[in-house]
Specification:
alpha/beta, Udp-n-acetylmuramoylalanyl-d-glutamate--2,6- Diaminopimelate Ligase, Chain: A, domain 1, UDP-N-acetylmuramoyl-L-alanine:D-glutamate ligase, Protein-Tyrosine Phosphatase, Chain A, 3 domains, 6-stranded mixed sheet, globular
């Protein structure tokens, strides 16, 4: 099923807008912010961004079939397109939020919101996989986890859905606060408080404040599910929501992983006397699974049903995506990186690898003032887990320095192209290669270039 239509009158009422034509009965069958993907019957919402003002594309959206379009008061005299209804609002971004909140309010279904410094996308996917065992689930797709992506996600809700899992990222204080009223979760999940975004937030205390915004709309019957091993998240107390904790090392948690065993097939552990297994090794994956297990148990799922969900899990995007190129196992985890997630990826790959480990690690962006020291620390850590390190980017010069004189091969290169060239020279059949860096380093191009070269050699 698809988006439940609104009339133009309903859109105007929700947004507090003013219809500048008399066709308030026109039906709206979808909401888009990109004029290139408009289909007949859509409402076009022009967003004013850092580089582009979406109002410029109102004529193109209407030409594509938009039944109506929003226009903020500062542009109200600039655009008038025949054949489409014009609705003037104070702010198109605020109107988008109000429409998303209104669509969310149509559905009385369990909603889980997920945030955290690392692991939130994997955790979101795991929770959705568990809930999908018994319910039709809507979940955040791709990187639609920011102030614009959250409302677009909520527009995907339709009458067929029986649960929703919404990922919420942020770079600054207040970002989740501005979006959470749209989501109104029943369960708010916070995976951890790490080093991501310290460049903007300054301290982990501020990161905690920013992540706690995900709990702001929750009531006494709602649950904050947090990592009880995280010293910052342990500060969260019931107010007015309930607090439940997951963990491995603390005894006072509600969902504790015990008898954790890493195997060639992944990881095994027990929670509340029930056995679980997950095909991806690493302690960080136990934490991710614990959140999904906690949500499942809270929602009344049995351990067998939860295990079925863990088995259904498929990683999103370039997250631990495994491909074999000329006998080399490439693990593409290049979507994003911070010190915690890089260490976790190194742990996972070193546990799985049967031959050498080649770590291709790039700059970790937005991690704050101690960036150089954190890159050096990762280099030292990589030397314990890998046989070869290819450090990519200007910040990663410190990473290479941290790994030198520790018995492994170390190379420092400028960018993804140079990394691909270096990898072609130093990697061998039987190697396991990890690609990990902040998204802006474009390390996914390394895998693409290696695959292209392999295909050419076969011709």
């Amino acid at each position: 099923m698809e988006f439940q239509p609104w009339t133009v009158d309903e859109v105007a009422h929700i947004t507090g807008g003013k219809i500048e034509t008399d066709d308030g009965g026109q039906m709206i069958s979808g909401i888009v912010i990109d004029s290139r993907i408009v289909t007949p019957g859509d409402l076009y919402v022009p967003i004013i961004g850092e580089k582009n003002d979406g109002h410029r594309f109102i004529p193109a959206a209407c030409e594509g079939g938009a039944a109506a379009y929003l226009c903020d008061t500062s542009h109200k005299d600039q655009y008038q397109v025949q054949g489409a209804v014009k609705i003037v609002v104070a702010s198109t971004m605020e109107a988008l939020r109000k429409l998303a909140a209104a669509n969310r309010a149509r559905y009385n279904i369990p909603v889980v919101a997920v945030t955290g410094s690392a692991g939130k996308t994997t955790t979101k996917d795991l929770i959705a996989a568990v809930l999908s065992v018994k319910k039709k689930v809507m979940k955040t797709q791709g990187n639609f986890n920011n102030e614009i992506g959250v409302p677009l996600t909520l527009f995907q809700l339709s009458p067929e859905h029986e649960a929703a899992v919404v990922e919420m990222g942020m770079n600054h204080l207040g970002e989740i606060h501005r979006s959470i009223f749209e989501v109104k979760p029943h369960i708010g999940v916070i995976t951890n408080i790490g080093s991501a975004h310290l460049e903007n937030l300054g301290t982990k205390d501020n990161t905690l404040r920013a992540k706690k915004e995900i709990l702001e709309t929750m009531n006494a019957q709602d649950i904050a599910l947090v990592n009880g091993d995280d010293p910052y998240l342990r500060r969260i107390t019931p107010s007015p929501y309930q607090v439940m904790r997951t963990g491995i090392h603390q005894d006072d948690v509600d969902f504790k992983a015990e008898n954790v065993a890493q195997t060639a097939e992944g990881v095994r552990f027990e929670v509340r006397g029930a056995s679980y297994h997950f095909r991806y090794p690493g302690e960080h994956n136990v934490y991710n699974c614990l959140m999904a297990i906690g949500v499942g148990l809270i929602c009344g799922y049995s351990p067998l049903e939860i295990q079925d969900g863990l088995d259904r899990f498929v990683p999103s995007g370039n997250r631990m995506k495994k491909i074999n190129i000329d006998g080399r196992d490439l693990i593409d985890d290049s979507y994003n990186a911070n010190p915690e997630s890089v260490k976790a990826a190194l742990n996972t790959v070193s546990a799985q690898a049967e031959g050498r480990v080649v770590a291709v690690l790039g700059d970790m962006l937005e991690i704050g003032k101690d960036s150089s020291e954190k890159h050096r620390e990762i280099g030292t850590y990589a030397a314990e887990k890998a046989d070869v390190l290819i450090a990519v980017g200007p910040l990663s010069e410190a990473m290479a320095a941290g790994a030198k004189d520790r018995g492994i091969e170390v190379y420092h290169v400028a960018d993804a192209d140079a990394a691909a060239a270096a990898l072609k020279k130093v990697s061998l059949p039987g190697d396991t290669v990890l690609l990990k860096a902040s998204h802006g380093m474009n390390l996914h191009h390394v895998a693409e270039q290696l695959q292209k070269a392999a295909d050419q050699e076969k011709r």
